[in-house]
Amino acid sequence: MNDLNHSLNTILIDPDSTDRPTLTTTTDPLWTVGEVAYYLKLQPETVRGMARRGELPGIKIGKVWRFRKSAIKKIFQEQP
Fold first, then answer.
1. Residue 1: inside a domain, yes or no?
2. Tens digit of each residue's pLDDT (9 = 90 or more) over 3-59
3. CA neighbor of 36 nearest in space, from 22, 51, 52
């Protein structure tokens, strides 16, 4: 069990990671499905489907999806 906890800490809270924010240092707001839908001009169910298929980076907390604002904006800024 101790090895599992160590592995999870390495994955989730990696202090040496420079390419992504860690859980302990991020202040990036989380958007709801409704906020992402409004920003992308999509229906909320479309956003949920895209998140389930991995087309949008999100995390499911209980029964609701949350999305990092910066991740959503970055995806669509990189599109040509």
1. no
2. 444 444 444 444 555 555 555 556 889 999 999 999 999 999 999 999 999 999 999
3. 51
Residue 56 placed within a domain = yes
- Among 14, 36, 35, smallest CA distance to 25 is for 14
Angular region, 6: left φ>0, alpha ψ -120 to 50, beta rest:
alpha
Counted domains in the chain = 1
**CATH of residue 64:** 3.90.105
Instruction: Report the distance separating Cα 47 and Cα 60, nearest Å.
Output: 12
Report whether 3 contacts 38 (CB < 8 A): no
How do residues 57-80 score in pLDDT, each as one tens digit?
999 999 999 999 999 999 888 666
